[in-house]
Specification:
Two copies of one chain form a homodimer. By secondary structure, chain A is an alpha/beta fold. The first copy, chain A, folds into two domains: 187 residues, Zn peptidases (Aminopeptidase, 3-Layer(aba) Sandwich), CATH 3.40.630.10; 68 residues, Single Sheet (N-terminal domain of TfIIb). Chain A contains six helices and 14 strands. In chain A, β4, α5 and β5 form a beta-alpha-beta unit. In chain A, α5 crosses α6.
């Protein structure tokens, strides 16, 4: 099986970049795996920015891959789509400023990817499974490979490294490769969270008019009830949740301010 | 007295930007103060980046201000230096990813600035004074005004807002203006921290080879002793502090990775 581990799809998410570089040096061996490493957005990595022109992890739609626009990430996506043509399984490493621990994101509905996610979630207390099956903004890098997981780790600021999260992620990543190598199977049902919607910040003429409420900040994966405070405006006015209970994720993720998502709503499900 | 409050000297430090915008709307009145507001780096603010070409807060040296290089921040520094010619007192708002609470930074040795810092540190438990009198990299915006304080708030990631820190900073800022307005004096001696040196990450060929040790992370202003762990390499090798005891600050500040500072060393002093 040909497996690729990628970091630096976003150039300011240092954990994945330095973990890929470490494993390139350590060369871990798995007898049934042809392992490759990828630093996906070298220009953004060099500048420690999420992207240069456009979010690379929204640049793999058919339209983007066929576009001849002079957008660095569109050009890069074409190169990566070609390079990943022979890849059977992609493990893509990301970080988030939200308090999401180690989240295994599934962006397609295939059994092999779900199997890995389930085993990791059962074995590690701090690992949760998030299904993110559709995304209006553009396709993830995962869309050009048959099987994949994204490992999303936080809270950590853009442009910094957190040693505890680094070593915890390394352990989970190596175990994921080990599961693939041994073709382990999991027949248990495992809890997961399905993204169902996004909620934007209060805005006036497009500009942010409030912040995540202190009582919501850091409470990713904790049940949010109707009536709970969610935002506080700069002048102190509070906003309350008015929908049916759900589990919020990506609360106050830096990169999603511009995407119009203060947090995402999820429902608990089983896989 | 003409007082300017500036935010957005660094375009991804949102607290100061949104606090300036709020006060522009609220128009607080102080009878003895002509109050002005400044969003210092509009191009960087629009792109939510620290800077476009060069750190604006290192672009106020004589050389930079006389340079005709096509560097956006050098050009902007000239505009700001002109605009601040009539300013008596500057309050410049910043954030840091380090766990520094509300730090009042003094970058010149004048009595008026020190007086404000002392009163704030005495009144607010979470306010500390940091003296940063010299900086090899280039002059701060503070260098073009006779008196100033910088308010440096953390921990908060670049590109995000933290409501608790926002409101706490607003309170301290308004109190600083109130002190200036009433010309209050403080004759007590107050504790402060003097920056004496910086320590860089372990590096190999210029590239980072390790992270802040988990036992140091978040412990700004806590006494660091000889033998305490400070770094951990990606392969797990630990580095220990070998110098005489000091108080570290700016531990793991995102913007200082490129400046070669994993943290700064300070000594306690009185003001």
């Amino acid at each position: 099986m040909r497996v690729t581990v990628s970091g630096g799809v976003h150039g300011n998410e240092l954990l994945g970049i330095y973990l890929v570089k470490l494993l390139q040096r350590e060369e871990p061996h798995f007898e049934n795996i042809a392992l490759e490493f990828l630093l996906a957005n070298p220009k953004a990595i060099a500048q420690c920015r999420r992207y240069i022109d456009r979010d690379l992890n929204r640049s793999f739609s058919k339209e983007a891959l066929e576009s001849d626009a002079a957008i660095y990430e569109y050009e890069r996506a074409k190169v990566l789509a070609k390079r990943l043509e022979q890849c059977d399984f992609l493990i893509d490493l990301h970080t988030t400023t939200a308090n999401m621990g180690i989240t295994v994101v599934l962006s397609s509905d295939d059994a092999l990817s779900a199997n890995i996610a389930k085993i990791l979630a059962l074995e590690y207390e701090n690992v949760r499974i998030l299904r993110w099956l559709s995304n209006d903004e553009g396709a993830f890098i995962n869309s050009v490979v048959p099987h994949s997981i994204t490992i999303e780790v936080g809270p950590v600021c853009q442009g910094v490294l957190d040693a505890n999260l680094f070593f915890a992620t390394k352990k989970v990543l190596l175990r994921a490769l080990d599961i693939l190598n041994k073709e382990e199977r999991c027949d248990e049902k495992v809890e997961c969270y399905d993204i169902v919607d996004a909620r934007d910040f209060p805005r006036i003429d497009g500009e942010i008019a409030g912040m995540i409420h202190p009582e919501l900040l850091g409470r990713d994966y904790e049940l949010l009830h109707p009536g709970d405070p969610i935002f506080i405006e700069f002048d102190g006015k509070e906003h309350f949740f008015e929908e049916e209970s759900c589990y919020p994720v990506f609360i106050n993720e830096a990169a999603y301010y511009e995407k119009g998502a203060a947090f995402y709503l999820t429902k608990k499900s089983t896989l």
